[in-house]
Amino acid sequence: MENAISVEKQQTFSKELVLKLILSAILAIFWVIFLWNFWDKGIYALGFNAFVFSLFFLGLFIWVLYKKGYYKSCDLLWIVPMILITLGYVLYDNPFLKIVNLLVLPVMFVVFYNQAFLSDKKNKLWNFEFIIKIVSRFFSFLTKLGQTATLYLNLIIPAGKTKKRVIVRVAAGLILFLIIALTVFIPLLSSADAVFADKVQVIYDWFLEILSLPFMYKLLTSIALTVLFFSVLTAWSRRFDYKEKEGLGKKIDPIVSGIVLGGILCLYLLFLWVQINRLWVGALPFDFKETENLVKSGFWQLFFLSVISILIYFFTYRKTTLFVQRILMVFTIASLLLLISAGYRIGLYVIYYGFSYEKFFAAYTVIYCAILFVWLIIQLFIKQRANIVKFLLVLFIWMYAIISIFPVEQFILRTNVALASLEESRIRLFELTMLSPDVLSLVKEYKQQGVLKERVGYLTREIEDKSNEEFDWNPWIKRQEKKISNKIWYEKNVMNVVYLNNSDK
């Protein structure tokens, strides 16, 4: 009986399983050693270290996908953008994107990695059943936590009751000895003999440092992360399938859907006709508040209408009669016109008031929605059923990946400097002090050229203030240089290294 258990244990701990257990532990230890400063420094502590960790994490899961025989060439459709997104950590400081990454990367990874274990993942329709299954699989790692902890205990403590008892007794003896020695005998012997105290002080300090509170936090975190990573790896690396129920479900009532679609379409067309002079604004009012109300509120209202239109399309696509589908096509075209109008507003706002994080990503979102609307219109002419949710997410991850490796902040600065030279420009370059060290070299270059000179009187957009005092960029420059100098070597990125190399010359 004992031999049978021993054989079973040996079969359980195959080379592949042991390797996965070790790699999960290494991944956790790496996080604790190289990413621990994230709690103190925040997003600026994520540089080369975050890139290596993300790449290692992604590589471990893709390796398991390959070993289980589920890897296909079509998986590159999500693997490549994932790598590009992680590459953004080692290229730029951009705090906006790095904060968004903390949400986008995990969500996208959960969706795409789990769908990679579908039997027919290339053609499978992503429907409500798919979404429910993904959510269920996400939480499935919770059921693996106990099993994972047991595996690590069995890996550390060899099989067999006799050996187990010996190891436990040895460990208990060592712990008890250290506690007694450090708290009783070493302090007493040290007080009795100064020479002895000098000899053991180094060892004593070393043990105290090891048993310090920060070390215990790191130790417990590394253990928790090790169990978590392996549990996730085990739970998400299983076969995945579901039934496509949409085609078997009830069709939407054509009369009800036709009236709703036709009614909303009429409202859209009426809005476009009545507000034509207001929508296609040729120039913006000089007053900043009036401009802000006109553009910002108008843009977000039209944008949310576009989101609602996409949802309506999703719920009515191929679930009604041919006539209602034709109404849906006209409705989608009208929605695209509303989106173009929103994009036109934000474009005017940028020309007069320049880019910011908000305006840049709002404009990029308009481009994303425009591509999506055009694709949705084309699908109405194609016989094959469109995989709407899949296209929406694949388009999103690719466009997000492209923007992750794009020098966003340098683009914003260069564009604003160029637009500021226009006669009617109301751009205030001082507002770009929100940017990160990514533009530090460029700011110093522009400052030296005199491009960034501004009168303080215009900083609050008050025309009547005629102060000739210039805005001082030096405090901002010093803050950015301090951010770079406070970084440990593995927290830096390419832009930091380029700046440091240029400043040394």
Structural summary, described in words:
The chain is mainly alpha-helical. The chain contains 21 helices and no strands. It has helices at about 1-10, 15-35, 40, 50-65, 75-90, 95-115, 130-140, 145-155, 160-190, 195-210, 215-235, 255-275, 275-280, 290-315, 320-355, 355-380, 390-405, 410-420, 440-450, 475-485, 495-505. Helix 14 packs parallel to helix 16 (about 355-380). It is flat. The N and C termini lie far apart (about 75 Å).
Topology of this structure?
Blueprint: H1 2-12, H2 15-34, H3 38-41, H4 48-67, H5 76-91, H6 95-115, H7 128-139, H8 145-156, H9 161-192, H10 194-210, H11 213-236, H12 254-274, H13 276-279, H14 288-316, H15 322-353, H16 357-379, H17 388-404, H18 408-420, H19 440-449, H20 474-485, H21 494-504
Q: State the oligomer.
A: single chain
Structural class: mainly alpha
Determine the fraction of residues in helical runs and give it as a percent range.
Answer: over 70%
Q: How much is the average pLDDT? A: 80
Shape, per Cα inertia axes = flat
State the end-to-end distance. 74 Å
Largest β-sheet summary: none
If helices are DSSP runs of H or I spanning 4 or more residues, what is the number of helices? 21
What are the segments in which pLDDT stays under 50 over at least 5 consecutive residues? 1-11, 284-288, 457-466
Number of strands: 0
The H/E string reads HHHHHHHHHHHHHHHHHHHHH
Strand residue content: under 5%
